[in-house]
């Protein structure tokens, strides 16, 4: 009989939960079950079907998370024919900041009949963007007060993060703010459903709630300056007890054992975030190795030994990715989105027809044609700011630019130029980290683009002049969570003492990797020099034409 | 019986000749006949069907021009039921520089059996671009020698002009150069076919052959520095006898009377160029009024009282447009071509489909959509250099730029931005003339875009903050030529003493005109300030990225 040890990783995404059963010794994924959230993303109506939501809202229903536990955990065990006793630990990761107000018992306020029609009682998903006014005010006040925490976040707190979301509740429905015993990250809430006790994780606290291991949260005086009613927000509605990634959160309770079919007493890890938990899943547990999660946007994560302030990083958090290290995060807000825009707005009919005739997608056709071009052949260069610049300039008002067009310029040349521009953006992030004392020696990549787009990955390798290794797991976040589950269980139970040990056995990268091609590197160095000059000219205030055009646009459409 | 007086204008274009019979008293066009050239533009084979031409070649066959006379002149008379006695004068205009080698009798060398298979014996059309090497060498040598004539041509002699074309003949087929008794503009050659004597016109001599009314041609020493065999080019193969526009070239001979059906002794005007002859056709006979011929490119022409050196003008020629005035020419090399590029390379399938469903052209659809946008609404700006910059920077190595793109940018926004960029380019030319002492007080327009594209013309009016009047004749060049024909006839014969008098009666502009819309002007002023800053930044050497990209491209594709 199979007496191997397993860990379970559960990745709570935007539309579904994904549970993976992983062999603790090898990291092999032996069973995977995905279940969509029953209520999905609520951006038009509440579950009552009549309470309408404003634009920019995005809510979830916490009952959906419990359904993930109830259905997918027994299902993976059954599929792999594994006994509950064989599962030594559970880890979860979640989107963030995805947050909810709960009562004293930890029950979501939206479970109470009296709040069923109150949107602010529900879970605010990471992409709930209706707290922009609060974020703007927060940044303004923090700037005026010279709050040093801003530096750790590239000078700006996002409307997606915890404090603006809480403030929006207070602004619009003070009774929910009052009624809430506390506000929790959904990540911590789902862990609490397994363990019966609240243990907040250092990753979301650090990256999303302005918490710092040594300095804690912003001061009561700062919160008071936002709104006097928020003066004691931390003490009253949050918690100063923050637990580092890699700790054990607790064990499966009798209640959660009934829900999940797992054995009471099974170890549960401190909660984590989808992007961050992918880092050890790719085998990264030490400084110098940057992981890029590449999809519609790119999230760049790297560990450091010391806390440095790097222009434009999205955050630096101690224990934020791997315990005992500084976890740095940066990002490009528009990568895959760029190419989608191009295909939807700029692709001529004959290209569509050609793709159809060949029976391939338009991206494949463009990639095929763009791949036949030599580096520098198009004579084009672009600034990849179609959706602003998240790093290193942190300026949403910057816009895209294409330069070098002639009457002979072809669609595939523009397509390739947009890809190259995003690669230059990544190089700019890498160099900025290096210049500010955070070494970047190796590149790793995960996500849809990393797995599928060889053409683009080669360009990234050539532009950065670095080898790029690709995460071998199609479920990197769930694998990473399972790794943390096995660490929560500990060596004695058949798991590992720490994430470094777990990564040695369980992490996965593909054997093939991308190597820079010297002749391409040489030309890209020249092109990057031009990119950098344009980047600084338009991005650092010498010529603010992009902002002026946005101002003119605002006046015009008013 | 109809005893009105008429003049005939003949416009020799690129693909056809267009003969118009015009009422001398009113300027009304009473009959028009168009005939295509039998041999069209020869850019692949000679008429023998076996001698292959290199790329960039473009030839014509002079017999085709005689066919225009033979067929279209009798045809207009017949169509309008007009007697030859009623025709008091003939004027012609031609493309330029369109040139040919002739023998001592003025016969084209290509008419001789022994040269039938020699491409250099034929007419080189204006768009014959195979003399680029010679033009480059000429500009280099002239620059080194500090030849002052360069200033009059914006610093550069085009490969389309006379001297490079002659030099190419010498370089590649010295026996043709030797055999040629002289080289003539086709404009002057076709006039000579009517009058029996050679009288070269000041327009092509000035704009295309580096001739100056006071200084004459470049020195023999200069020509010798190009090639010792060319030292005496002017004396041996050209002529110092140049006649101003508006003079009488001669009269219909017995021979040409037989060819054309016109009466022997009918006055014939000195030859002219299609664009330049459109100026009086729009009623312009004095300084301050700029005519724009708007099509695939724009040619800007304006008269001045004094000779000024304006950066980037294509030429300034005394008597070049209207006798006794300085004729200034400037141009934008890429206007209609711009929009064609966009439609061929950037238009999505759903736009094509929508146009098809509505039963309109894609340009009409884009214009409809772009017309719904307010000024400044797109947030975009462009530099209109897809085909380099002819004026005021005179730099073919500049390339196009689009700035301000976001994920919401739509095709019609880019389309409108390209139109606006060409209008900013025209404003730049207008302002440069003004700054250099050539007043521009009124705008006139002719050509396909001026006649058809109200949307674009309104943008030009708003951007320049000037009213724009539109030439009312669909055959402006032929009308202008007929006007010069009536001047050649003179007042005693029922014509006019000079072109000013002729224009008062015969010129045509439409009653409606474009008026700037104040609120648009205000915003375009702001956008133009941004355009100008980018224009100077990328165009005047501060950031030579466009050239660097072209250099990289050259190295890459080598």
Give an account of the 3D structure.
The structure is a homodimer. Chain A is built from 21 helices and 22 strands. The termini of chain A are far apart. Helices cover about 40% and strands about 20% of the residues of chain A. In chain A, strands 1, 2, 3, 5, 11, 12 and 13 form a seven-stranded mixed beta sheet that branches. The first copy, chain A, has a seven-stranded mixed beta sheet with strand order 16-17-15-14-20-21-22, sandwiched between helices. A two-stranded antiparallel sheet of chain A has the order 4-7. Chain A is globular. The mean pLDDT of chain A is about 95. At the A-B interface, α12, β19, α20 and α21 of A face α12, β19, α20 and α21 of B.
Query: Approximately how much helix is present in the residues of chain A?
Result: 40-55%
How many beta-strand runs of chain A? 22
Main sheet overview of chain A: 7 strands, mixed
Assembly context of the chains:
homodimer
- Dominant shape of chain A: globular
Model regions low in confidence, pLDDT < 50 over at least 5 residues of chain A: none
- Average predicted local confidence, pLDDT of chain A: 96
Q: Tally the helices of chain A: what do you get?
A: 21
Q: Radius of gyration of chain A from the CA trace?
A: 24 Å
| Largest inter-chain contact set | A-B, 52 and 52 residues
The secondary-structure class of chain A comes to alpha/beta
Give descriptors for this structure.
homodimer; 558 residues; alpha/beta; 7-stranded mixed beta sheet
Write the layout of secondary structure elements.
The structure is a homodimer of 558-residue chains.
Chain A: E1 6-12, E2 16-23, E3 29-36, E4 59-60, H1 63-80, E5 87-94, E6 99-102, E7 123-124, H2 132-145, H3 149-152, H4 162-172, H5 174-179, E8 182-185, H6 186-195, E9 200-201, H7 202-208, H8 220-226, H9 233-237, E10 242-243, E11 248-251, H10 254-260, E12 267-269, E13 272-273, H11 274-281, E14 288-294, E15 298-304, E16 315-318, E17 326-332, H12 336-345, H13 349-358, H14 362-371, E18 381-383, E19 400-405, H15 411-435, E20 440-446, H16 448-452, H17 454-464, E21 468-471, H18 476-489, H19 499-506, E22 509-514, H20 518-539, H21 545-557
Parallel strand pairs in A: 1-5, 5-12, 5-13, 9-10, 14-20, 20-21
Antiparallel strand pairs in A: 1-2, 2-3, 4-7, 6-8, 11-12, 14-15, 15-17, 16-17, 18-19, 21-22
